[in-house]
């Protein structure tokens, strides 16, 4: 395993931000760390990076603690922007690349490639503060990966991006994984994590309430979703045996059901009563699992 977090706890005075967290993140994997605000995600990232020391437990990468001597192998995109608004884009990226051990010519070559990829080459000589929030986020991402790190920590990487730029960034992240990087990231957008990650962990009040391979977590959830689009008395399905939850949609209903047998019974019941355009049985989403494990705390 590339990254091992063993029984890690972090306390700030009487507040426990992370509580006995144990994770093993495989090399070359994409790992999603999820949780509501204050769940302990950013504190965990800072401990992985060595910016905070655990109160208890150990964190090792490739069998050793992370310290400054490994900084050139690590990339970090914090949730808060840390760019200098009065510096020009290219000169700032060159400076940050050199801090990670890059030669100037090497940094310039990589910068040109990334600016071209993210369609912001025309901004190379603009001051960072003159750019939109979305373009600043793309620059911050470039700064985090410019030196081709082996371990990449991304805290809310899609923040401030429109759908087109989200896709650009997702493609870049997948390319980094394909080239061997181990990537750990957080996002409030469950669909992004679901699309990109093989393994996930959901934190709640500093504790891991769900952790493992996403495919296996879905299979063990014990509930499925049934989506029906059509015309007819769909609202009566809310009271159908085996239906756990019913949500009206613009085109029909979305049911949470206990088993595939319930779906078959509903199909037989609806035959002749409903003009069905879509009848689809789906696995539970990561959002369903998150709400099940965390959402009750807010009710």
UniProtKB/TrEMBL annotation:
GO MF, any single term: ATP binding
Gene3D superfamilies found in the cross-reference section: P-loop containing nucleotide triphosphate hydrolases
Keywords: ATP-binding, Nucleotide-binding, Transport
SUPFAM superfamilies: P-loop containing nucleoside triphosphate hydrolases
ABC transporter domain: residues covered: 3-230
Residue ranges that the Swiss-Prot or TrEMBL entry lists as coiled coil: none
Protein name: Vitamin B12 import ATP-binding protein BtuD
Native source organism of the sequence: Geobacillus icigianus
Lineage: Bacteria, Bacillati, Bacillota, Bacilli, Bacillales
């Amino acid at each position: 395993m590339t990254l091992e977090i063993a029984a890690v706890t972090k306390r700030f005075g009487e507040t426990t931000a992370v509580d006995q967290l144990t994770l093993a993140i495989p090399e070359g994997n994409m790992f999603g760390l999820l949780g509501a605000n204050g769940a302990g995600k950013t504190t965990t990232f800072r401990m992985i990076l060595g910016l905070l020391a655990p109160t208890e437990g150990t964190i090792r990468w490739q069998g050793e603690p992370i310290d400054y001597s490994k900084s050139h192998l690590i990339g970090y995109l914090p949730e808060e922007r840390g760019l200098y608004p009065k510096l020009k884009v290219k000169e700032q990226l060159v400076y940050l690349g050199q801090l990670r051990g890059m030669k100037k010519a090497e940094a310039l070559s990589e910068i040109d490639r990334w600016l071209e990829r993210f369609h912001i080459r025309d901004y190379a000589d603009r001051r960072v503060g003159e750019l939109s929030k979305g373009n600043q986020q793309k620059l911050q991402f470039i700064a985090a990966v410019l030196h081709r790190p082996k371990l990449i920590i991304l805290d809310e990487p899609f923040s401030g991006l429109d759908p087109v730029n989200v896709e650009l960034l997702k493609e870049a992240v997948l390319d980094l994984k394909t080239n061997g990087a181990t990537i750990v990231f957080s996002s409030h957008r469950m669909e992004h994590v679901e699309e990109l990650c093989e393994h996930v962990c959901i934190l709640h009040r500093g504790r891991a309430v769900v952790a493992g391979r996403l495919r296996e977590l879905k299979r063990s959830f014990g509930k499925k979703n049934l989506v029906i689009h059509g015309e007819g008395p769909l609202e009566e399905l809310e009271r159908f045996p085996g239906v756990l939850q019913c949500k009206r949609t613009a085109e029909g209903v979305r049911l949470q059901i206990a088993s595939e047998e319930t779906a078959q019974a509903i199909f037989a019941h609806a035959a002749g009563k409903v003009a069905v355009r879509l009848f689809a049985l789906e696995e539970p989403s990561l959002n369903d699992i998150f709400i099940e494990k965390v959402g009750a705390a807010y009710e």
